[in-house]
Amino acid sequence: MLKGLMFLCVLCSSVEQKIYVVLNETVPCVRLLNATHQIGCQSSISGDTGVLHVLETESDLDWILSSGPHPPYMVIMETAFFNRSVMMRMKNSSRVAGVAVIISKTGLADNFSPHTTCPNQNTGVYSESYGSDLANCNGTVWNPLGNGLSYEDFSFPVFALKDENQTQVLRKCYEDHNQRVNGSAPQYPLCAMQLFSHMHAVTDTVTCMRRTDLQNRFSINPEVLCDPLSDFNVWTSTRPLNNSAKGHAADESVVIAATRLDGRSFFWEQAPAAEGTVSGIVTLLATIQALYPVTQEAPPPRNIFFSFFQGEAFDYIGSSKMVYDMEKNDFVIDMNNVHSMLEIGQVGLRSGRSLWMHSDPVSRQNKSVDTEVSEEEGKLSLFSHPLPPSSFQRFLRARRIPGLVLADHNTSFTNRYYESMYDDAENLNVTYPPGLTPDEQLVYETDAAKSLAEVATLVARSLYLQAGGEEKNLNNITADPKIVNISVFLTASFYIGLGPRVHGPAHSVTRFVQYILANLTGTVTNLTESQCQNPSELSTENKDLFSYFWVSGPASVNGTREPFCVRASVRLSKAVSPAFELLEYGSRNYSTWTESRWKSIRARIFLVASRELEVMQPALVELTETKQKNISAKTEIMFIK
Amino acid sequence: MTLAVFFGCAFIAFGPSFALFVFTIAREPLRVIILIAGAFFWLLSLLLSSLVWFIAIKASNSQDPSLQRGLLIFGVFFSVLLQEVFRFAYYRLLRKANEGLAAISDDDSSAISVRQMAYVAGLGFGIMSGAFSMINVLSDSLGPGTVGIFGDSQYYFITAALMTLALTLLHTFWGVVFFEGCEKSRWWVIAAVVSLHLLVAGLSLLNPLYEGSLPPVYVITLLMGVWAFFSSGGSLHSLSALCTRKT
């Protein structure tokens, strides 16, 4: 493979191309900061170089950490060794220049969650003053399999190797040059790798924002060091709400149905989050699809407000922002409008047909809340644990409203790969029979889809009843498993990212959910393109109640598309932590997560020569120089003019 | 491959020529001028020959590696011939200049002899040729890696430096011999210089078989050195005088 690369390069005279093999697909781990800590990984500014060593057995670990003669080492870590004990030993060793983790299913342990055991423990509802015996997971440890790796601070770069071909290149280089022969050390030249992932921000968000402010104020060419994590929440409602009328909405009593829109993992922008997030999104979408027609034909007394919250993995960015806006009268409704709340948590791994409903025992001490919750639960079984980590907790912090969180787990998560790269389709048991094309896979009804459709039906009917609808209409509310086409979501990444200031308009998943909602709940109008973009000019259209999307339409047989205008009551609302609006960067109440900036993230491999060879060359020089001086001093004698 | 290699190779390639410059040329402004003009003439020859090669490359099929290699060989030999043509042109220019210098001087004799001009011109050619061979390679030697991941020899940098050193010295000796040949109208000398230059260029095409290129080139350098010594008026007698007399 390497020889083939060489022949591509016959005419290029660049010596650089003889030396380095640049790795194209790099998946780094980056630095994130909050009010008090920095987490993630960092390389030095000119990259970290180390001799490659593949970590496959325990003796390799000893070689790297103590006995190998060519430190520092760049460790190529097999999947089985990517756990807390090994990574902590690497962190404490000075002989490790960096780690490249092979991401594959071979050798994967039974469980792997780099998240903490108690997600979002400081920004939930349970604290010293509210349910103190339930705070900090004293009542229930939600993620007992969590090893907390995502929240450690590493001073060397950690990259992920997802591309099998690239891993092969690395292994080949290692086998050709670095392999131990009969236990003796390998000879120079050795294969080495250099990783670049220098992060500009340090210490914590307070420091980073202060330095950024200084730059903005005093520097001619200001350099921003970090950006707050931000994106958009997506919301819609069965009855349109006037977007320009902020604050309390008169005569509106709203039932909120919510789920989260994001996920994360140890590495940057890798978050398949199948069981953690996709199950919730898909269920809520199917709920809306089942519920919407009935609410138009036989509208219930209360409005139903559907919301997808972004950034919940990072101390509830989206939900805290919405609650903050509601309290400040800066949103279409406020807390007085909220009647109750139903949240869909992780619902993908139900064993049998069981579904658990979690409620908050502290707020249920209030009789009226308790009555509402019992009505909400209906006839299904219930247990009184603390609430799992959920957006509902942020609403409870503001007001004791009745609410439930649906989940497939009772005490701790059934998700064994919570917030990791392995929480993918396989974790959700989404399998297709062999031989299906991608188009066929889109419409195939997997067992997971059927299970989620059942949950969606249940949720839709509960919401309808909760909104005061009549029982006779319940049979018309059924979710269609075909609509629940999960495979589309299973290839996406759900990391929140940095939002409009840095990366352009909203995250792709956010946009996708927005358009699906518009498709499910919107109506096609016969406006032209210019009318669609400026609907306020028409008297029949109302920009305050609806948003208008110009859609390119399905591809017809001969390849042309007929675009049209869709009117829907789907909106985006900003999901950035209130701490950044209030400029309280050290806030304890709100999320303060920021992501560092960097210049370049790349990786390359090459050979390194021994120190002896390096030192030998100047010695040669000494020899030639002394000879020169001797002879040139005597030129006059040698030559005749 | 770090600073050690960078400085090592830089001093190997340019050390001797730098020393020659400092001890024999730097004090005489006239010699400095001739040196720099000589370097410029070499540069002109390179420019023209590379233009020809570039046009040939663009006009040909870039996907055919053997054709590209053939064009490269053609380019190398054409460049050698053009360098020698420019050396001859420089000789003519210097002769004319010499007459002018003699006319304006006080005692009707030139401040610099043809032999000295020959040496300085040759050194000028050598320094510029060395610079163009070596600077690119030196800048890549600063990084952490060394050549070899695609199977090339790991001694790439040091052999490039040694080759450059040999070429610089060769250009100096060729300058001396060539000008002497032109003065005495011995055309076989000129033919010998040209063919030796072609031979050395051809040997460099054998790389990366460094055993095939470096030892023969150094043997040629040694022989040329001896020839240049005797051609510029040295003799065994003056050599023994050098060793016995103390400075």
UniProtKB/TrEMBL annotation, chain A:
Q: Which domain of life is it from?
A: Eukaryota
Cellular compartment(s): Membrane
Where is it found, in Gene Ontology cellular component terms?
plasma membrane
Does Chaperone appear among the keywords?
A: no
Kindly indicate where the leader peptide sits in this chain: 1-17
**Which is an annotated Pfam family here?**
Ncstrn_small
Question: What family, per the record?
Answer: Belongs to the nicastrin family.
Q: What is this protein called?
A: Nicastrin
TrEMBL record, chain B:
Q: State the source organism's domain of life.
A: Eukaryota
Predominant subcellular localization, coarse grouping: membrane
Q: Which UniProt keywords apply?
A: Membrane, Notch signaling pathway, Transmembrane, Transmembrane helix
Tell me which stretches of the chain form a coiled coil: none
Its cellular-component GO annotations read: gamma-secretase complex
List the GO biological process terms: Notch signaling pathway; protein processing
How does it sit in the bilayer? Multi-pass membrane protein
The signal sequence is: none
The UniProt entry, under InterPro entries, shows: Aph-1
- Specify whether Methyltransferase is a keyword of the entry: no
Query: Does this UniProt record's set of keywords contain Manganese?
Result: no
Q: Where are the transmembrane segments?
A: 6-25, 32-55, 67-86, 117-135, 155-179, 186-206, 218-242
Localisation: Membrane
An example Pfam family from this entry, by short name, is Aph-1
Q: Which family does it belong to?
A: Belongs to the APH-1 family.
Quaternary structure and partners: Component of the gamma-secretase complex.
Q: Function, please?
A: Potential subunit of the gamma-secretase complex, an endoprotease complex that catalyzes the intramembrane cleavage of integral proteins such as Notch receptors.
**What is the protein named?**
Gamma-secretase subunit APH-1
Which organism does this sequence originate in? Cyprinus carpio carpio
